[in-house]
Amino acid sequence: MTDQVETPAPEKEAPPAEELELEIGRKGFFSKFNILRMFRKESPKMYVNEGQKLIENHNLALATIAFQKALSLDQENKEAYKGLGNVFMRKGGRSNSNLALENFQAASRIDPFDEHVYALSARLYEKLQMMKEATLERKKMMIVKTLQTEPNNSIANNNMGILLLQQNNAQSAITYFQKSIAAKASYDVAHRNMSATYLRMATAEQDEEKKKPLLSQAKASIGKALEINRSTSSLLIDGKILICEELFDDALTIVEEVEKMDPTNKDVFSFKRTVLEKLRRTKDAQEAYDSYQALADQTPDG
């Protein structure tokens, strides 16, 4: 009896490239990237792109690793922060929503002109029933949209300056206050905001030689604002500059003028207390604080 010749089993066809990619991804995220590194240089963009693909495939755990790897290579990568925000948003729940917001805020700090980030943040705040915060995010989105169509809009440029200042980007904020003033030289609010920004920079500066020109710029800007409109807000900025210059009596004169203009403004009494403490008038400072506290108690929250 002759042996039967066995028919060889047909070879299994190789899966298409797309299937291979997913199959390797299931076996281990970093094993896949070990293969990829053979063909292309490791980069934040590579991990961000992979993270986005993993989100599309509903693999949020590996997507998180991909975006975190991108950030380990570039801590200022906006798209990686957006990707992490997306991951936590899709996971749902209050704690994940808060983590998503933290990442979206980091993204907007890097790029304040990405309106999509504000839209996502607003949606999350609404889910958390934080309507005031949601409204603020939508206002930010409108500022960006307005500047896209009206780059010389004085109000929008001023508001962008405020937004940048809130994100601790003082130098860029000044640029937008300058644009606002260039569009409308009589806009006292932009002059005042620019002064307040220079004052903040001066207060944070430890080097006295560097502080002087910043205070000088603050003084020049508030002077222009006061020429246009001697408002209580501008006068208070002027008073704060005088305190930095240690001209406490002049600062008190300013605050007394503001008190006459607006005796129900609690911030006036808070500032008055500061001035009186600098003058070592302890009893008067306590009276100013009592007035502040009484007004604060009458002011509704929000």
Commentary on this structure:
There is one protein chain. With 302 residues, the chain is mainly alpha-helical. Among the domains are: 41-149, Serine Threonine Protein Phosphatase 5, Tetratricopeptide repeat (Alpha Horseshoe), CATH 1.25.40; 150-217, Alpha Horseshoe (Serine Threonine Protein Phosphatase 5, Tetratricopeptide repeat), CATH 1.25.40. Helix content is 77%, strand content 0%. It contains 16 helices and no strands. It has helices at residues 17-27, 29-37, 44-56, 60-73, 78-91, 94-110, 115-127, 131-149, 154-166, 170-183, 188-204, 208-228, 232-244, 248-261, 266-278, 282-298. The radius of gyration is 29 Å and the shape is elongated. The N and C termini lie far apart (98 Å).
Topology (elements, then pairings):
Layout (H helix, E strand, L loop, with lengths): L16 H11 L1 H9 L6 H13 L3 H14 L4 H14 L2 H17 L4 H13 L3 H19 L4 H13 L3 H14 L4 H17 L3 H21 L3 H13 L3 H14 L4 H13 L3 H17 L4
Helix pairs in contact: 1-2, 3-4, 3-5, 4-5, 5-6, 6-7, 7-8, 8-9, 9-10, 9-11, 10-11, 11-12, 11-13, 12-13, 13-14, 14-15, 15-16
